[in-house]
Every structure is written in C-alpha cells, then in structure tokens.
Amino acid sequence: LGPVFNATQVEDSQLGLNPSNCCSIDSTMNGGIFWKLDDSTKLLGVQVILILAYSTIILFGVIGNSLVIYVVFKFKTLRTVTNFFIVNLAVADLLVNTLCLPFTLVYTLDGEWKFGEVLCFMLPCAQGMAVHVSTITLNVIALDRHRTIVNHTETKMSKDMCAVVIGVTWAVSILLASPLAIFREYETVDLSPEESIQVCMEKWPSSSMNGSIYSISALLVQYVLPLAINCVAYTRIWNTLNNHMMSGGRNDRQQRKKKTTKMLLTMVVVFAVSWLPFHAFQLAVDIDSTALYMKDFKLLFTVFHIVAMCSTFVNPILYGWLNNNYRSAFLSVCKCYPAFASRKRRAGGRETRKNADTLYTECESTHV
C-alpha cells in the first residue's frame, strides 16, 4: 500500500487533478490510479451489490424513460409543449443511463480505462452534457409554468419555439461540458517496473487551481443555481394557485394545475435530495484534498454516485403516480388498460364518456 500511495501523491501533485465531472468517475479517481489502493470495493460481496445496484438503475432508467418518449409521440393528446420538455428530460436521463453508468461500473470494478483513446475524450464530455441538459430542462419547465401561471400569460409557447429552446439547451450543455474533452489526457501510468495501466484523466494547464475552479463552477451550474431557480419559481407558482383557490377560484382547471405543479415540484425535490450527498462530497474534496487518500474514498464516491443516479429513473415513476394521463398511457402501452387514444370515443354510458373527456381536457389545459 505504501509505494502505491506515494506514487499517487506524486501523480496528483503533477497533474493537478480534481473531481469535476459529476457523471464520470475517472476524473474523481485521479485517472484510475486510486483503483490500486486496497479498499472495500475489492471485496466480492461489495462488487456484487454494486453490480446489482447499477444494473437496476440502468434497467429501470432505460425502460422508464423510453416509455415516456414513446407515449408522448404515440398519443396526440400528450403532444404538448411541457410534455416535449419532459421528453427532452427523458432523453437526457436515457443518455446518462447508457453513456455513464455502464462505463462507470466497469471502471469501478476493473480499475483501468479499457475503452480506448477516442472514448476517453468523447465519453466524459457526453456524460457532462447529458447532466447539464437534465438540470437546464428542469429550469425551463419551471420558468415556462411560472410564465403562464404567475404572470397570467395566456399565449402558450409554440411548438417551434419549444424546439428552439430545446436546441439552445443542448448547445449550452455542450459548451459547458466541452472542457471535459479539451483538458484531458490518455496515457500509460507505470505502477511498478512490472505493472502499468491505461488511464484517462483530466489535465489542466499550469496549476491544479484551474481544475478546482471548474469543479466548483460545475457545482454551482449543475446544482446550486438550478435548485435556486426552481425553488423561487415553484414557490411563486404554489402561492399563486393557493391564492386563486382561496379567492373563490376553486374549479377543476385550478385543481388540475395544482396537481400538475405538485408533480413537477416533486421532480425538483427528488433532484435536490438525490444529488445533495454527491455534490456535498465533491465540495468536501475540493476544500480538503486529503480526503482523496482515505481508504474507502472510492466506495464513498460510488455510493453517493448511485444515489445521484437514482434520479434518472424516478421521474417516469412520478409521472405514472401523480398524473392520470401518463398513467393511462403507460397502462395502455402495457396492454393493461383500454387504449388511451380511443378512450374518449368509447361507447357504453355517460360515466365512461365523462372520464374520457376529463382526461382529454386535463391534458389540454395543464400541458401535461
């Protein structure tokens, strides 16, 4: 343990590495060198648990987000502006599930970058981009609802404008994630005369301070700022809806708006709670770099990373739990419920027609 620890200290001081990519594990682990330290992740039982945890997140994330994308484009009544933003969020979460988690799991268990030089530069950037798209989209949804509910803007955002906003979201996300591809190095590190490993790591110019600046900036942009915007927006939305209901505006449309807002607010709470341990841990490492040399640093990082990644599959569950339209569409696709698109046209009594009309009206009036 001693020789590897000293080599790690030398490499860390030379390269100036800092954790900054909240999706990829390679930069946080200083190019893979820490993989050679003895820690709990080398225990078979721990590895089995990690494989099950990551596999479960990937499975539910891919199925849930793919289902959201499918039902929105399958059923015309779900093709609204807010739902297109939700689809954008699902696409970003789907990318995290496919581009982030499998590679992180393999790197965690194996301890060496085995995906080649091209992916060394492409994957961290793509991973960071997907996370930025998720956080920005949550803000866009909140600001759009704030515009229509608090500012009483009757004019709905057009689908063309929605497409422009989504395009700008991806462009900004690529720009924010680009340093993860630019300041990166793929090389072979000799651990001993007989052993060497391939590593993919961040390499910032001049001093380690540049990496710390980017890491803290990523924390602000990916967590603190989005959370602040969401909190302000949804607090004002919730107060506005409550005031309308208290002043005699207690009608079905207001109730539906409040229910939809509750669903979206729950999404933000899940985002805040799931990402808090990870970002707090990252901040602690930025403040005190000696934490990098803890025996179970790798295990702690992995556990917090798993908790953060749970947010990628929880949203589809929230849609099905808190929104009648998504729940009906999901069940319809699973052949467990009458066809969603034809429900409003079914014959067979006033109550059946009333329920179908209510579903259609809710979808149109709440945008979800």
Automatic annotation (TrEMBL):
<dbReference type="GO" id="GO:0005886">
    <property type="term" value="C:plasma membrane"/>
</dbReference>
<dbReference type="Pfam" id="PF00001">
    <property type="entry name" value="7tm_1"/>
</dbReference>
<feature type="transmembrane region" description="Helical">
    <location>
        <begin position="162"/>
        <end position="183"/>
    </location>
</feature>
<keyword id="KW-1133">Transmembrane helix</keyword>
<keyword id="KW-0472">Membrane</keyword>
<feature type="transmembrane region" description="Helical">
    <location>
        <begin position="213"/>
        <end position="237"/>
    </location>
</feature>
<feature type="transmembrane region" description="Helical">
    <location>
        <begin position="121"/>
        <end position="141"/>
    </location>
</feature>
<protein>
    <recommendedName>
        <fullName>Neuropeptide Y receptor type 2</fullName>
    </recommendedName>
</protein>
<keyword id="KW-0675">Receptor</keyword>
<dbReference type="InterPro" id="IPR001358">
    <property type="entry name" value="NPY2_rcpt"/>
</dbReference>
<dbReference type="GO" id="GO:0004983">
    <property type="term" value="F:neuropeptide Y receptor activity"/>
</dbReference>
<dbReference type="InterPro" id="IPR000611">
    <property type="entry name" value="NPY_rcpt"/>
</dbReference>
<keyword id="KW-0297">G-protein coupled receptor</keyword>
<comment type="similarity">
    <text>Belongs to the G-protein coupled receptor 1 family.</text>
</comment>
<dbReference type="InterPro" id="IPR017452">
    <property type="entry name" value="GPCR_Rhodpsn_7TM"/>
</dbReference>
<feature type="transmembrane region" description="Helical">
    <location>
        <begin position="263"/>
        <end position="285"/>
    </location>
</feature>
<keyword id="KW-0564">Palmitate</keyword>
<keyword id="KW-0812">Transmembrane</keyword>
<feature type="transmembrane region" description="Helical">
    <location>
        <begin position="44"/>
        <end position="73"/>
    </location>
</feature>
<keyword id="KW-0449">Lipoprotein</keyword>
<keyword id="KW-0325">Glycoprotein</keyword>
<keyword id="KW-1003">Cell membrane</keyword>
<feature type="transmembrane region" description="Helical">
    <location>
        <begin position="297"/>
        <end position="322"/>
    </location>
</feature>
<keyword id="KW-1015">Disulfide bond</keyword>
<dbReference type="InterPro" id="IPR000276">
    <property type="entry name" value="GPCR_Rhodpsn"/>
</dbReference>
<keyword id="KW-0807">Transducer</keyword>
<feature type="transmembrane region" description="Helical">
    <location>
        <begin position="85"/>
        <end position="109"/>
    </location>
</feature>
<feature type="domain" description="G-protein coupled receptors family 1 profile">
    <location>
        <begin position="64"/>
        <end position="319"/>
    </location>
</feature>
